[in-house]
Write a structure and sequence with these properties.
37% of the residues lie in helices and 23% in strands. The chain is α+β, with helices and mostly antiparallel strands. It folds into 2 domains: 9-188, Jelly Rolls; 196-289, Arc Repressor Mutant, subunit A (Orthogonal Bundle). The relative contact order is 0.12.
Length: 302
Amino acid sequence: MFLQTAKVAKVPHDLAREPYNQGILKMKGLSVVESCTFTKGLKGTMFLEDHLLLFVLDGSYTVRFGSQEYIVRKNEMVLLQKSIVIEYEKSGEEGSGYVLDYMMFFLKEELLTEFIKMADLESNHPSALVPVSVKAVNERLINYIYSMKPYFKETDNIRDGLIKVKLLELLFDVADADEQFLYQFLQLKRTKRKSITEVVEENITNPVSLNDLAYLSGRSLSAFKRDFQAIYNTSPLRWIRSRRLDIAKEMLLLTSLSVTDVCFSTGFESVAHFSKVFKERFGVAPSTCKQPLQKPNQEPTP
């Protein structure tokens, strides 16, 4: 079945291009996004380049990962593991004029490493990694979120390093508020080793990098490449591109999706690049594979 027909936004990279009101704090790769808007049932799909901690102050933010659905309501937070694709639906409440107010904190590996060291946490806790975790927010965390709002009004005047300090403060507040979340931070630093075949097949049409696949498989990048070569007898980049092109050709032949839709549905991020590698592989442009749809009971043209 071919269900995915829209481009998957890579966040936080693509958030600056979103067409609705939001503020972004970014310093040395550390990103905080504030969004206050009026919306009802806005849907989309995101690929998480970093771990994400999201707080809802008003409205609701629904996250779908695999077959599971999680609803994050007012004064709740959700922690999401990086390198996964989620579907989302966000909406304000009818009684408040559909105001949706939330804040997103993107947590890089380096920041988590520094936090774990500063907090003197033991890294051998047996807690299992949960890709999506939803928890209530206490008063201390709510006050912290509101304390961040003034920074979005003067992004050009923030001293270097302040965003990092505020993110570390956030991690301490979250860890103090919920012990299980504290151990989730530890587990984000180590993913259970999984089958390379399973990880690759699950993400074959997602816009993942080799670093993402290595992380999801619980391996270093060098170990992932070595184990992949042993299984497939070729490099990951070459095999994954070939597999995506096979899927793309099948979609072009068997569905009514446009070349652009097929490009984004198979993990490619540029139509021009997709068209180039498709022609190199099959000798024809992707548009050549598109077949005119036959009307019901219409005889094929001889």
